[in-house]
Amino acid sequence: MTNKTYVREEIGALRVGVADLSLDSIVIAFQDGNSPESIQLQYPVLTLEEVYGAITYYLANRLFIDDYLKRQENLWTSLRQSAEQSPSPVVIRLRSVRHSVVGEPT
Questions:
Q1: Please, is 4 exposed, middle or buried when counting C-beta atoms within 10 Å of its C-beta (0-12, 13-18, 19+)?
Q2: Per-block average pLDDT, block size 10, for the chain (106 residues)?
Q3: 40: which residues sit within 8 A by CB, 6+ positions away?
Q4: In this predicted structure, what is the pLDDT of residue 44?
């Protein structure tokens, strides 16, 4: 019998499956009331076994994962704010094009 690992850490992020799906996606779907089967349908790159393994990992490490999810949300909020304050040249150009085509403000 072999022990399987369903969740692994890569560069500070928790990942599931060979497709490296974020654990965040699975946990949030589970917290929203989705069954493991419906989560697997949402993320067909994962096997049902991997989904169950990720949920089991979450349930066994709930305090750690809840803290991790808060840190991830803070990180993404910070990155969004930074991107809004200093948009890349591509974003500036796309906004300009959208404004000229649709008349939306930039």
A1: exposed
A2: 88 91 96 98 96 97 96 88 83 82 66
A3: 46, 47, 48, 51
A4: 96
* b/e map 66-81, b = 16+ CB within 10 Å: eebbeebeeeeeeeee
DSSP string, 24-74: HHHHHHHHTT--HHHHHHH-TTS-HHHHHHHHHHHHHTHHHHHHHHHHHHH
The CATH class that applies to domain 7-102 reads mainly alpha
How far apart are alpha carbons 52 and 91 in whole angstroms?
A: 39
What number of residues does the chain have?
106
**Which uninterrupted H or E stretch holds 20?**
none
Q: What tokens were used for 80?
A: 């969004």
Parse the chain into domains and list their residue ranges.
7-102
Q: Is the pTM of this model over 0.70?
A: yes
